[in-house]
Design goal:
The chain is α+β, with helices and mostly antiparallel strands. It has helices spanning 2-15, 45-51, 61-71; strands at residues 25-33, 36-44, 72-76, 79-81, 84-91, 94-103, 110-115, 125-132, 135-141, 147-151.
């Protein structure tokens, strides 16, 4: 009986090509770290390699920076910010990128974010999380909603 159970589990693992990976989203966390604003991005490495115009089988700083600048726009209090990629970490299917946005300014009044990151992936969403002005807000962006504007007034 044990052999039969082990055989069934082995067949299930061999036949499963999904790798139990169903989440189709990327998260963009804007957070204050000391005296700076940072952007932390988590996404599926496989989707980026397939659809993000990567030149290799791994996520490089150059490819990621180019794609991020092409597919996103960040504006706080009317000032456009360009994320600077500091570090890329990949673990299994997921990649985390840490970017510098700007020096932190107290009482940010407004922001506008345009985000089309990996929206060519079927059913993909981008979750933008803002932890600024001692307030946490999050927004879902997708094919029908590619831009958000928020006023803190």
């Amino acid at each position: 009986m044990r052999i039969l159970i082990f055989t069934c589990f082995a067949l299930l693992n061999i036949c499963n090509t999904n790798n139990f990976h169903e989440s189709i989203s990327a998260t963009f966390n804007v957070i204050k770290r000391g005296h700076v604003l940072m952007l932390e991005i988590d996404f599926d490495e496989e989707n980026f390699i397939k659809f993000g115009e990567s030149k290799s089988l791994h996520v490089s700083k150059e490819d990621f920076s180019n794609y991020l600048h092409k597919t996103t726009s960040w504006e706080f209090d009317g000032k456009k910010l360009i994320p600077q990629v500091l570090e890329i970490k990949s673990v299994k299917h997921h990649t985390k990128v840490i970017c510098y946005l700007s020096k932190y300014r107290e009482n940010i009044k407004s922001f506008t974010i345009k985000n089309e990151f990996l929206l060519n992936v079927k059913s993909h969403s981008n979750i933008v999380k803002l932890d600024i002005n001692n307030t946490f807000k999050d927004y879902r962006l997708h094919k029908e909603r590619r831009e958000i504007k928020v006023d803190y007034n």
